[in-house]
Amino acid sequence: MAQPKIPRDLLPSDPRFGCGPSRIRREVVARLAEPGSVMGTSHRQPPVRHVVAAIREELGALYDLPAGYEVALGNGGATLFWDMATVCLVEKRAATGVYGEFTKKFSTALQGAPFLADPAVFQAPPGDLALPRAVGEVDAYAWAHNETSTGVVAPVSRPDDIAEDSLVIVDATSAAGGLAADVAQTDAYYFSAQKNLASDGGLWLAILSPAAIERSQQLTASPRWVPQMLDLSVAVTNSRADQTLNTPALATLVMVEAQCRWLLDNGGMAWAASRTASTSGILYRWAEDNPLTTPFVTDPGLRSPVVVTIDIDESVDAAHLCARARENGILDIEPYRKLGRNQIRVATFSSIEPSDVEALTACLDWLLEHRD
Fold this sequence. Notes:
By secondary structure, the protein is an alpha/beta fold. It has helices at about 25-30, 45-60, 75-90, 100-110, 210-220, 230-240, 250-265, 270-290, 320-325, 355-370; strands spanning about 70-75, 95-100, 120-125, 140-145, 145, 150-155, 165-170, 190, 205-210, 295, 305-310, 345. The longest helix is centred in the C-terminal third of the chain and has 22 residues, at about 270-290. GO terms for molecular function: O-phospho-L-serine:2-oxoglutarate aminotransferase activity. Pathway: Amino-acid biosynthesis; L-serine biosynthesis; L-serine from 3-phospho-D-glycerate: step 2/3. InterPro entries: Aminotrans_V_dom, Pser_aminoTfrase, Pser_aminoTfrase_mycobac, PyrdxlP-dep_Trfase, PyrdxlP-dep_Trfase_major, PyrdxlP-dep_Trfase_small.
């Protein structure tokens, strides 16, 4: 027997709520096919290099780049950058904050490096936060601005009492373009493009301090063997020429540039951070008011403005709820697969309209009321 459908007047205008790949504004996708598009052209020629130059300039404007800091980019996404940071930014030992799947992945990469001592790991259960503290003989401190798997947001501030030459390495993959940050507190603020930057995967971008660039040059000039693809100094050299080491996905570059320009045109990071805080607030208030739902992150101060995780009462099968939503065209509200909780996870990235999140809550109310 067919399940009843959500009334059309309740549905959001755009039903995409995934945490990555995320919603790409439709006008940006349409622009890829316009006459004069760089699609299908050489990435070494001026038209594409102008796009890369614009990305670097616009990201610098969004984050008010401190003197000497540079924007670099390369192929492979943040996962590749974990390995790049392991070989090019950590000299002997790192300290990491682990409070979800993605912070754990970078810590695991560091543990596997045969030329490094095991990292000092500061760990908290999913839904909570642990930041690294000063440790002797540690030369790099790493955590995530936003833990995408759990919806925990962390401060971006250089830890107290660390050595002056220690580097601070912050994963901003689901934060960049949606959360404000003082990048002067970091040495590498790195991210992928498929979340608040509303593009596609396969590209990493990083805002690098002079100290990070110098460290990478020292380590790649040492006896430590570094594959060219993981050589941050090579990536910096190519970025200064407004290109990448090997062929990038041109559509990704075009969409990143379009999103950066859109953010700047609307008021920059202050506007983006205000928008995501407002949009996520709609969901958190709904979760607190509904007797069948609870925000997963119990501390309001740790609740992410860009990734909202909501526990569902055990009387409701969250997997079935997500499946029913998908049957009605509402996409990608499933929880992070490895967390294993009866919950939903919703992106409230910069490109997601607040009115669509309002509509989502109405649709969820309808589904909960009309569940089997």
